[in-house]
Structures are given as C-alpha cells and as structure tokens.
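dumping the sequnces here before i forget
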Amino acid sequence: MTTLAHFQILASLLFVIGLFGAVTRRNAIVVLLSIEIMFNAANLSLVAFWRYSPHPEQLSGVMFAIFGITIAAAEAAVGLALVIVIYRYYKSIEVDGMRSLKG
Amino acid sequence: MDTAFIILSLITVAGAVWAVTLRNLIHAVLSLVLFFFGIAGFFFYLNADFVGWVQILVYVGAVAILAIFAVMLTHNLTAEDEPGFFSLRWLTGMAIAATVGAVLWFAIRSNAAMSQTAPAGVASNVADIGRKMMTDWVVPFEVVSLLLTAAMIGAIVIAMEQISHRK
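..and the predicted 3d for all of it:
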C-alpha cells in the first residue's frame, strides 16, 4: 500500500535533484528549468497531503497546487525573457559571467 | 507501494536527473517534458484530475515550448564548459543537496501521520474547484490574475528590442 511517506520522500528527492541542478549548472536556462523541477516537487507534495488529509472536501492542497502552477508559469515567462536580454547584453548566458555588480 | 507508483517514480526521477545533467540543452528540455508528464501522472493517480490537466496544459504546452524557444534564441544548443563529474562545483552541489535531503528525510521519518494509507472516495471535480475558487479563494484568485497580467506585460517589456530613434 502506498503511504503518504512514499509521496513525501519522492517529492523531497525531486526537490533535491532540482536544488542540485540550480546550484551546479552554469547555463541560465538549465538553472531556470531546475527551479521548475523544485516547483513541481512542491506541488506533488501539496496534492499528496490533500489526498491523505482528513478533510479533502476543503480542497486546500488542490488550490495551493493550482496557484503554485500559475505563479511558476509567470516566473518562467519573466525568467526566460530575462535570459534573452542577458544573452543580448553579454553574448552568453553563463551565470558565472554576470558579475558586474561584484565589488 | 503498487506498480503504478513505482513506474511513475522511475519516469519522474529519470526525467529530473537527465534534465539537470545532460549537456545538450534540447535533450535536457525534452527530459523535462518527460518529468512534467510523470508529475501529471501522479496528479491523476492522486485523484486530482483537474490539476493533472492544468499541469499538462501549462507545463508541457507552454513552459516547455517557451524553454525551447529560449534555447534557440540564444544559439546555445550545447552547454560547453560545464563542470564535469567530481569537480569542486559538483561536490559542493552534492553536499548542499545531501544536507537538505537528510533534513527532509528525518522530518518525514519522525512524523507518525506519514504512515497512513489513502482514504477511499477522495475526489476533486471541476465544479467544486470552481465554486471554492469563487468563494473562499476569491482574493488569492484576483491577486494571481493581477500577477499574471503584470508578468505578461513585464516579459514583453523586458524582452523588447530597444527602439532606435534614427530619424
């Protein structure tokens, strides 16, 4: 039988994979995609909590997941627009190259 | 654990690992599509059908296409000069990820409520979701629609070419 712990451990594993990608990769697009992986892991966790909750008719987890997906979509649109502008300015999207503000 | 959970777990974990490790960016985005489909499968498995369809529409339909467009517009199909395995950068990332993962693991393991099995008859239909969204959740709904409008205008303004005044 699949318990709530299985879902939460899987969501933690996916979150950790996304965190690893966001910290290690140099390409700005892959960093944004890793952040999307973390968003999805959080949504999976919220929906699993809703499925196993004592009051599923409140639909709280589902609502949180829908709003999370909306905000993630807005973040992806603005983030990828920023990547395009950064490419136009630096001719590169390596995150290590953006150090103009470094003192 | 049943078979569907194991298969969906393998799909999502493989998609996520490929998306963060593959050098070719198009391959990474396609692995991410696999991951998004796996997560949508989990939403169907958890009886959250509407969230599953929204996941497919928004992520597979919009975010993946947007990512592929960004890859192509930046002429950056393969990420050269990525750090290799067992470089200092990878070891640091592994250490950070392992620390966060261990904290989450102990938090999950120390909670007694985590061992419960799924109650029967839990479902979410679209009518109930719409009713909730227009009553209890109406303020977040309005705020998030304002946020989407601002993000849409903002993305256009940010990515717009600077208009040159030659005349």
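Chain A has a mean pLDDT of 89.
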